[in-house]
Amino acid sequence: MYYVGIMSGTSLDGVDAVLVNFHEASFSLISTCYAPYDPSLRAKLLSLNQSGEDELHRAALSSNRLSRLYAEAVERLLEKTGIDPGKIVAIGCHGQTIRHCPQPENMYSIQLVNGALLAELTGITVVTDFRNRDIAAGGQGAPLVPVFHRELFSHPDIHRLIINIGGIANITSLPAKNSVDSVSGFDCGPGNMLMDAWCLQHTGESYDRNGLWAKSGKVINGLLEDLLNFPYFSMQPPKSTGREMFGLAWLLSYLTGREAAQDVQSTLLQLTVRTVADSIRTCYPAARELYLCGGGAHNDALVVRLQQMLSDCQIRQTNILGIDVDWVEACAFAWLARQSIESTPGNLPAVTGAAGERVLGAVYPV
């Protein structure tokens, strides 16, 4: 029961790919692969987050280019393990989100991937387009990983929270299995996305390693409060967001131009910490176990500040639960591919707002 999971998120840094084995009730992570985006591909994908000249043509070309990169990642995974492609049941590929519009009157979400091309290049059945069936049922199509968190990380007696800090930060609440409460979750707001963009603009580095640059500055309290007053943060779940809402243009609209760059970085780090902590205090005040995953789990300054704000919570990484912080989302899409192949629902209506459970994904068989 081998599956491949592929995830490329809103951070636009590259492709995470995993080879996993599902055997009855067990799950094992066999191999991993990371394929970074080269600067030209990242720039093309970033430009597609906004309207521009001949964007349909550019999107199609980028989709094909991405699919070839996905295929290379799959090839590397299988080379490392010696497993024949014919033994892989399916590839679950999220694709690269270039637009996510969850407004009820105009709801859609676009992920770039050419599933047919990926199937041809790998000789493996491909499952893509995980969001649109949920959207068709009235949901937001995101976040999708809480259902995987439920299967892998739930505890019989303990209420756990899983916090994924990627480009966007999202939260999953996993009540104890013997509880009457339901699994829930939502996007808290920006995770690494704004910090990465600001860091690249001012230092030339793609991210702030361990939050060292943010630590060299100080929080601008007035700016922080202005950012926190943005309506999204007070919205009730279900809710999801993306680069369309929290791009660099959003930040620039709040700045005077007189702020020290490192102070803005420190403030952006605090924005991520506050929106995660406020979400927990508001929605899940009784939770005491919190597990981090995603790139933000490596940001020491962020983790320290989050622990300071949530001193009554025990903050650890998902490594303790069996999956390294860098590979949780890719594993989730391998699991979602299995759900699709087995015609089993893959969404949680309490999370996305859909009218009911649905089988997700479009299948490209070989």
Walk me through the structure.
37% of the residues lie in helices and 22% in strands. With 366 residues, it is α/β, with parallel strands linked by helices. The chain has two domains: 178 residues, ATPase, nucleotide binding domain (Nucleotidyltransferase, domain 5), CATH 3.30.420; 176 residues, 2-Layer Sandwich (Nucleotidyltransferase, domain 5). The strands form two sheets. Strands 1, 2, 3, 4, 5, 6 and 12 form a seven-stranded mixed sheet that branches. Helix 2 packs parallel to helix 3, helix 8 packs across helix 10 and helix 10 packs across helix 11. The radius of gyration is 20 Å and the shape is globular.
Question: Helix/strand-derived class?
Answer: alpha/beta
CATH topology of the largest domain: Nucleotidyltransferase, domain 5
In one word, what is the shape?
Answer: globular
Can you tell me the number of structural domains? 2
Query: Radius of gyration over alpha carbons?
Result: 20 Å
Q: Report how far the terminal alpha carbons are from each other.
A: 17 Å
Report helical residue fraction.
Answer: 25-40%
CATH class of the largest domain: Alpha Beta
> What percentage of amino acids are in beta strands?
15-25%
Compressed to H and E, one letter per element, the order equals EEEHHEEHEHHEEEHHHHHEHEHHE
Low-confidence stretches: none
Give the CATH H-level superfamily of the largest domain: ATPase, nucleotide binding domain
Total of helices: 13
